[in-house]
Write a structure and sequence with these properties.
heterodimer; A: 209 residues; alpha/beta; Helicase, Ruva Protein, domain 3; Dna Topoisomerase Vi A Subunit, Chain: A, domain 2; 4-stranded parallel β-sheet; two-stranded antiparallel ribbon; 8 helices; B: 454 residues; alpha+beta; Rossmann fold; Glutathione S-transferase Yfyf (Class Pi), Chain A, domain 2; 2 domains; 6-stranded mixed β-sheet; globular; binds zinc ion
Chain lengths: 209, 454
């Protein structure tokens, strides 16, 4: 693209680095931004800068937040003796959308994978162990009370299972209930198209009606 | 099963192809690099979702294909139904818009481009793994002639391909096992370097044992059942000049000759299960027995623990299995003649065909890619006699004259030249097959055709 200005080329290149965006989409987005009002473009630029400057890690649950502790950890209405362990901040969003979980979270920022060189030190496992040892943290209502249950909500694949197994061994203590999310059939899915792994796990996890 | 129609778009040398395929024996002849083998490759792709010729599947997309994708559509006639199977291989498709639920995105390639495989059966999207076994094939290519003498990985691949076509659970277990093996060896290296603790192995030991045992059972079962068929086919194929060259002289040779037909397949697992006392194996409940086997294998892993960590590699498990071939008690990989070893490879392939048919109720199509020229005239004749009566056999050859006349008489013959496929002969209609004149005329035609090829 010899005829295009350097700033356009730069934006296309930067956008194309984002996951899920190929060169064609990057071009489309660039020319969309070029045509849009200056205000809108500025807001986008500021939002991008702000997210990097303001986002910090919650000192309790390690989720990405703008305040420390994060709104969930600071909420006295929630059950702080129930910790749901997830791999990514996005998993918190997904679980929050269900509105079912009254407890709090712990974000590992990944799953153990020897193949990718991700070991226990690379995840927030020590932080979780310390949290369970110390009991419910200060400023959250029933402080000092023991943690009652840890739900291991890592992904239902080998890395997620390994991570859950590893953590359950690392934090096990008398009186602490360790649970794993049930795995079953996707809602709205067709039994016929469910793979055998999903089907057999759904069968194993069946409940009495 | 039989492929009735094959349509290709931008597949290898074919920009566009629509080919109707008959039942029985079909021969494609033509010089090298004219596109004969591409036809068999396309069929193996819809049967196994993999190419038997390349591990880099993007190679099948025709150079300069405008859409950067290749499409293979096969109309399959099975014993009780009809299927249209479509496989699309696409590379570097930008944006998520063209992605479907059924697409499988391969890990990013070194160039950063993605490569997708999309599968449809009768128009409905399916996962690639669901395709395996729907339209079974048995491929016999020149590399298969080294099955006996080649590396163990080639023999494991043979076992896995056969079992995957008949058993989805095996296929899924194997693919999980391969991931476990990769993670576990990485973990062993991390432990060696002090980055992880040996305790971390417990989870992967459990996974390895859980997946290894059914894989080993599957292989042992298959070999036990295929052994009889392989021995029978081997006896039919092995010619008399093939006494194994036994190490102990004339007497041995004579004995070898007498026993040369008794081929035996021997499973050689890297982890040998302790022998169960004969009656306890019978009386023990299946589940209890499997639990005991798992415990034994876990204990065996403990024994090799230090070696595994030192080597940073998985020492025990089906990824290290092998397969041996014995005739008259002699290991044919070591003492067999070249001809014998090739006969074993052939017998094994034909036994595979019988096994798949017995397991699935569907007779696989047999694809013989350029193997006739690798066999001596006697074996060529034996082979084509052995495949007579199969639903569908597709053969490629550079030289039509080497095909036995008796087999050619019944065959459909196509010439493949520069990506064009020209039908040269249709098999005689059943009511004419008695008339010798017809047949010899056809045979002369075929001979002439191959004549102007030279
Ligand atoms: Zn928090």
């Amino acid at each position: 693209m010899q005829t295009t200005s350097a700033s356009i080329t730069t934006l296309i290149e930067e956008l194309a680095k984002l996951p899920g965006i190929g060169p064609k989409t990057a071009q489309r987005l660039t020319f969309y931004i070029l045509r849009s009002p200056t205000d809108q473009a500025r807001r986008l630029a500021e939002a991008i800068t702000r997210v990097k400057e303001n986002a910090i890690q919650c000192s309790i649950c390690c989720n990405i937040t703008e305040s420390d502790p994060c709104p969930i950890c600071a909420n006295p209405e929630r059950d702080h003796s129930l910790i749901c362990v997830v791999e990514q901040p996005l998993d918190v969003l997904a679980l929050e959308k269900t509105g079912v979980l009254r407890g709090v979270y712990h974000v590992l920022h990944g799953a153990l994978s020897p193949l990718e060189g991700i070991g226990p030190r690379d995840l927030k496992i020590d932080e979780l162990a310390a949290r369970v040892r110390a009991g419910v943290s200060a400023g959250a209502g029933a402080e000092g009370e023991p943690v009652r249950e840890v739900i291991l909500a890592t992904n239902p694949n080998q890395e997620g299972d390994y991570t859950a197994t590893y953590i359950s061994q690392a934090i096990a203590r008398p009186g602490l209930l360790l649970t794993r999310l049930a795995r079953g059939l996707p809602i709205g899915g067709d039994l016929e198209y469910a793979d055998e792994g999903t089907l057999s796990r759904a069968l194993e996890g069946r409940r009495e009606l | 099963m039989r492929v009735e129609r094959l349509r290709l778009t931008d597949f290898r040398s074919y920009r566009e192809l629509d080919l109707t395929l008959p039942a029985g024996l079909t021969v494609f002849y033509g010089r090298n690099a004219q596109g004969k083998s591409n036809l068999l490759e396309a069929i193996s792709l819809i049967a196994t979702t993999r190419s038997f010729r390349t591990s880099s599947e993007r190679e099948v997309i025709r150079w300069g294909a405008p859409g950067r994708f290749a499409r293979v559509v096969g109309d399959i006639a099975r014993s009780h139904d009809q299927l249209e199977i479509e496989v699309i291989l696409a590379e570097g498709v930008d944006d998520a818009t063209s992605t479907t639920q059924a697409s499988e995105t391969a890990p990013a390639t070194p160039t950063g481009a993605t490569f997708r495989k999309r599968v449809r059966v009768n128009g409905s999207p399916r996962r690639a793994i669901d395709l395996v076994g729907m339209a079974p094939v048995v491929v016999f290519a020149p590399t298969d002639l080294d099955l006996v003498t080649g590396g163990p990985s080639q023999r494991r691949h043979f076992l896995d391909l056969t079992l995957c076509q008949t058993n989805h659970t095996y296929c899924r277990t194997l693919s999980q096992y391969q991931k476990v093996i990769a993670q576990r060896s990485a973990l062993l290296r991390r432990i060696r370097e002090g980055l992880d603790t040996p305790q971390s192995l417990a989870y992967w030991d459990d996974q390895l044992v859980r997946l290894a045992l059914p894989i080993m059972r599957g292989r042992a079962d298959f070999l036990a059942r295929a052994s009889l068929a392989a021995a029978r086919v081997y006896r039919a194929l092995a010619s008399e000049d093939e006494a194994p060259a036994t190490p102990d002289g004339d007497e041995g040779a004579a004995r070898g000759e007498a026993d040369s037909a008794a081929l035996r397949l021997e499973y050689r697992p890297s982890y040998q299960q302790p022998q169960q006392p004969p009656d306890s194996a019978e009386t023990q409940a299946d589940q209890a027995q499997q639990a005991q086997q798992a415990q034994q294998m876990r204990a065996a892993l403990e024994v090799v623990r230090r070696r595994e960590i030192a080597q940073g590699a998985n020492v025990l498990g089906p990824h290290r299995d092998d397969l041996g071939f014995l005739a008259g008690g002699v290991d044919l990989a070591i003492y067999g003649s070249r001809g014998q070893q090739r006969t074993v490879a052939l017998a094994l392939k034909l036994a595979e065909l019988e096994y798949i048919e017995a397991e699935t109720g569907e007779q696989p199509a047999l694809l013989l890619d350029d193997v006739l020229s690798e066999l001596d005239p006697q074996r060529r004749e034996d082979l084509l006699r052995a495949v007579h009566g199969l639903d569908q056999t597709l053969v490629t050859t550079t030289d039509l004259t080497i095909a036995p006349a008796s087999a050619l008489r019944q065959a459909t013959i196509f010439e493949v030249r520069g990506g064009a496929i020209i039908q040269k002969q249709t098999p005689p209609a059943p009511e004419l097959s008695e008339a010798g004149g017809e047949n010899s005329e056809v045979r002369r035609d075929a001979a002439n055709l191959s004549g102007d090829e030279q």
